[in-house]
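User: Here's a protein and a ligand (protoporphyrin IX containing FE). What would the complex look like?
Assistant: Let me lay out the input and then the predicted complex.
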Amino acid sequence: MKGVVFTEFLAFVSESWDEDMADDIVEASSLASGGAYTSVGTYDHREIICLLEALSVRVTLSKEALMQQFGFYLAGRFSVFFPQFFTRCGTLFAFLASIDDYIHVEVKKLYPDAELPSFDVLDSDEAQMSMRYRSSRKMEALAEGLIYGAAHHFGRTINVVAKDGGDGSVIFVINETHS
Ligand code: HEM
């Protein structure tokens, strides 16, 4: 997985806890990379699972909850790095539909060795959208956090339900809620 995800993960840990926590989990994880990530490098995606495990023990939150929190944070960072992906879409649902058709296509041009998930729209109307996430890396908790983070960017309040889609896929049912 591209280094930008790892550098942002360690930034997320430093901001949410502190730099010592980031150093500590790197040290505890005996990573092949040594944790010296650069944003354009490519690293084994399982390193993030090791880092999450080490963080989970220290902060007594589940790996899934932490991955989701990181996804929320990452969406905010992507909106700073790649504002054009957000501004070209008028609505949250149009943005989510553009991940597979446009955003990750552009990401692949930028980083040819990126391993991206598929994220297909199954159904969509004004209030609800269903999408199927499929990836051998099984990062659905990251995907869910990214969806919530994107909603936050568009100023929408949503509720996401994740269901087993069979064949190892996950179906997200995203509802806009009005407060
Ligand atoms: C501007 C928006 C976005 C950009 C620039 C972007 C870019 C990226 C990049 C660079 C990776 C790493 C892939 C690799 O290194 O192999 C990635 C992975 C991923 N992206 Fe996106 N992404 C964006 C939005 C989203 C959103 C909103 C979702 C929500 C579903 C999403 C779902 C994922 C997931 C789950 C992964 C982890 C890899 C996997 O599941 O197989 N992305 N994305």
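Summary: The helical segments are 3-16, 19-28, 46-59, 63-81, 83-87, 92-110, 140-153.
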